[in-house]
Amino acid sequence: MKRAMIIASLGLASVLSFGASAAVHQVNAEQARNLQPMGTISVAQIGSAPMDMRQALDAKAEKEGASAYRIIEARTDASWHATAELYK
What's the pTM value of the predicted model, to 2 decimals? Predict the structure, then answer.
């Protein structure tokens, strides 16, 4: 249940903060079917907001040369951790 809330929060945050100039964007499972996977990334931090998780994923995915990513695992408590699959 907690994981679903986090993923839903991240999805909402991505819709609210997505800019037209963003080089990397978050996709859902259906959109990912049409993309070529290129690996995974993980990010973690202590005591920050879910929005920080999205920003960290965006930065790391862009650094890896991805055009999109899909969150495949996320958890939070006093710290958070997320894993995302990258796509070309």
Answer: 0.71
